Amino acid sequence: MAAISREEVAHLARLSRLAVTDEELDRFAGQLDVILQSVARVGEVAADDIPPTSHSVPLTNVLREDVVVPGLGPDEALSGAPDPAEQRFRVPRILEEEA
Amino acid sequence: MSDVTRATAAELGRLLADGEVSAEEVTRAHLDRIAAVDDKVHAFLHVDNEGAIEKARKIDQARADKEQLGPLAGVPIAIKDVIATKGVPTTCASKILEGWRPPYDATLMERINGAGMVMLGKTNMDEFAMGSSTEYSAYGPTNNPWDLGRIPGGSGGGSAAALAAYEAPLSIGTDTGGSIRQPGAVTGTVGAKPTYGGTSRYGLVAFSSSLDTPGPCARTVEDTALLHAVIAGHDPRDSTSIDAPVPDVVAAAKLGATGDLTGVKLGLVKEFSGEGAEPGVMAAFRDAVDALVKLGAEVVEVSCPHFLYALPAYYLIAPSECSSNLARFDGVRYGLRVGDDGNRSLEEVMSLTREAGFGAEVKRRIIIGTYALSSGYYDAYYGQAQKVRTLITRDFTAAFEQVDVLVSPTTPFVAFPFGSRTADPYQMYLADLYTIPTNLYGGPAISVPCGLSEGLPVGFQIMAPTLADDRMYRVGAALESALGTLTPPDLEV
Amino acid sequence: MTTLAMLTYDDALERFEPVIGLETHVELGTATKMFCGCPTEFGAEPNTQVCPVCLALPGALPVANKAAIEATIRIGLALNCSIATWCRFARKNYFYPDMPKNFQISQYDEPLCVDGWLDVEVDGETVRVEIERVHLEEDTGKTLHVGGATGRIHGATESLVDYNRAGIPLVEIVTKPVVGTGGKAPLVAKAYVTELRDVIRSLGVSDVRMEQGSMRCDVNTSLSKPGAEWGTRTETKNVNSLRSVERAVRSEIIRQANVLEAGGKITQETRHFHEDTGETTSGRSKETATDYRYFPEPDLVPLAPDPAWVAELKAALPEPPRVHRKRLQDAWGLADAEMQAIVNAGAVELIEATVAAGTSADGARKWWLGELARRANEAGVELGAMNVTPAQVAQLQQLVDEGKLNDKLARTVLEGVLAGEGDPAAVMAARGLEVVSDTGALEKAVDEAIAANPAIADKIRSGKVEAAGVLIGAVMKTTRGQADAKTVRELIIARLG
Lengths: 99, 493, 497
Ligand SMILES: [Mg+2]
Ligand SMILES: [Zn+2]
Known about the structure:
- Chain A: This is Aspartyl/glutamyl-tRNA(Asn/Gln) amidotransferase subunit C.
- Chain A: Its EC number is 6.3.5.-.
- The structure holds three protein chains of three kinds.
- Chain A has helices spanning about 5-15, 20-40, 40-45, 75; strands at about 65, 85, 90.
- Chain A is an alpha+beta fold.
- Chain A is flat and about 50 Å long.
- By secondary structure, chain B is of the alpha/beta class.
- Chain B has 16 helices and eleven strands.
- An eleven-stranded mixed beta sheet of chain B has the order 1-3-2-4-6-5-10-11-9-7-8, with helices on both faces.
- In chain B, strand 10 and strand 11 form a beta hairpin.
- In chain B, helix 7 (about 220-230) runs antiparallel to helix 8 (about 250-255).
- Chain C is α+β, with helices and mostly antiparallel strands.
- Helix content of chain C is about 40%, strand content about 20%.
- In chain C, the strands form three sheets. Chain C has a nine-stranded mixed beta sheet. Chain C has a three-stranded antiparallel beta sheet with strand order 5-4-15, with no helix packed on it.
- Chains in contact: A-B, A-C, B-C.
- The interface between A and C is large, with 38 and 58 residues.
- Strand 3 (about 90) of chain A pairs antiparallel with strand 9 (about 160) of chain C.
- The structure holds magnesium ion and zinc ion (ZN).
């Protein structure tokens, strides 16, 4: 059984903001299926009583004092912007359902 | 000195300190070499000719002014293009960052600059460090100086090839699943992945935050240690940076170079004892183990039963983190923007931008990661992978109760021909079979050349406990003292 | 065709039981942002308070602000929460241009503070609102919508983003469902947000100004038939004043009741509250809501607050506002209703500060609930936003107490203070408004008034003292109101008596 369908890949691409082509969808669906079937093996060994590890270094409470550090000037901040306007980053219209 | 490009960084440091050669001469010699051979090798994405000469002159002036300079002052270095360099293009070998010049320097660049080193330019890599061959660079692959028709490893193929092609004596790589060590192995150079948290990630463009580790690359173990000492140490700008003294890796390399490993216990990982590896690779590896035994090392076989689950766990954790880390490339604040015709919505423009800006491997991993983190799949995939991570760490901890270091081949195969593993992504992933466990555990590991198979370099991997980076340098330098370094065939210039 | 009669609020409550829940976001008043050293000043020029971290430049990494963690723990403690001994930040993944990383660093299943409560007073009754969690996250940037008619997202052709606000620490406080309050639900919601604001203000960790957006409220509302399971809830956003909190709940109760009564179904969705109409309109439906793909933030290490530190913070908490108010009420000798009037006017702290500056409670109360409340109401602003400090009010009252100003003059002086002319004493001097107490000048004015009104003077001489009013009026006129009427009267009687 396939681990992942073409429709699922299309949904994931949308979630990831990737305008994939039909050809890519076909190719990715097959490749991702192989990959996911291979990696699904992680389920074989990890029992319920094993705690998950999110960080390999056992650090806690790494904090910074509340002191202002000089940042970037607006020119530097906007230096890489594809479309700056009025010292801001211009973007195309935002669909309301995203709000 | 007839050809400074053949010298080691340690030798260059001495020549510069003694005034036998100037930093400008050393820098020009390397820039000339790049100009002569990089058409063939394509190790560099950007060469900073003016910046390098200017920096070299400053160092020469500082030396003339009797300023206190470090051992690598005036020595050139190549930087993987995943490290932010102020004012110098930083693309991560991706179209999405084409032309981006960061307004800030990575912490390790501040340290390299502070050490008086001269950056020659930025090296090629797999896009966003995802790959094992540099074939996923958006700007074309790097060619292995040992055989220009073969891959130089990846993702840091440019940083390794630049060393093998004598374009630079030192380079910086980053290792998420083996991206320093595997290129080192297949180019006959040395590459070290420090303890996670031992080198700062601030300014390293994130692929997988919990695994990414910047580290040093060179042609000798001692040079690697010298560079390690420059870049390692606590950085308050990286929350995962370890606030502890850096072990004396240079002293460890010097100790190892004496060729005495009496009392050192090597652990042979039973699970990595041949399955899936090329016979020539295993033969070179066994010969190297024998050589270490002759130097006094004791060899024990240890079982790390969960190491075989490292690859699947890695290919869930790394894509998951990458799917989130790469979300910032959206064409709003920097980089590429595609399809903004005044009519399309932001969502459409973002999607077109990311579709056009990312290559196929990056997209595959973003999609896998998005899937693995989705509600309903999280527990089965990401959650399970995090548990495997615990099990692998336990394997390492148990092993290091019996032995000082673990050893294995660095990668199962020698440099493979271009195109031979791109059709099936999983075949490419197997290149990192032996390097990935270390990344999941967080400890240090080094790859040192151990001879040839079919005329191509084989790498020997030494894995050490967390924060015991010095151990791998000692064993690595001992191996180098026994086997010598490798010299690639001359590139016809 | 038959038209169903609209249910009123009272009809709605006869048929349904409301359940409400509140999610409040509070911007902390730290000097720097949550994960970088950028300043947090309100109203700076666009993109001048940014750095590689809060712009999400490739390679930049977050480091958590200790003061923000401390402030969140203090809020948790003040809300009677348990403080986690170990917790993590998580990434909440979704694309939106005001969020530079396209994920928000927040907390998911491991919040810093859990299981607390806050008692609020409604109509003399105490209602306990239970707190589910208090967690820490980062704010977004600000988006300016261009090309639409109203500056709103609807109809805009493009938007401009400013990241000054991006990364400012934001504390999210989530209540458990509040049940069984019936028709008082809107008042409970308002009282809760008010009390929460006072608690946070008393901690000094935020200026909690809803009109500036440093405190923002989302209100969840659902209706159910008595005894039945809870209905589907809606989440109303954009509720930006205390008054709106009450109105939003009320209008959502009426709307939902009418939908249900007509046989319709409530959709689980986000709704937007409109200050102008007092009504909510439909926003994004939760059915199409994105999967946020939360996972532990790998760039930050876990938090493990030292229990000793937490105990220290707890011991150092200020008195809760409710207790504090009770103490003030006793000290000021006020009846419950009088104190309630002060609370409702938002004048507790103002009067407290005025008293602390050396005025009697009555004197302070007279100004803040009288003249100043009237002017604030006229101007449509909060009392605290008036351009006068408690110290100035205290000085004003002192001038009255010393006899240098009478009530009328004092109001004129206050006008000057509000107009930015300086402290009361300065305004009085500059405008020459001091009560005339120089008896020489006053006697002259009295003599002139007597001379100008011989008939009235005769009446007074003949014992008709009440006629003195006319002469007093004349004196006040020549002294432009600056004479003390009592003194003038005494002088007249002395001359003619
Ligand atoms: Mg929130
Ligand atoms: Zn910042």
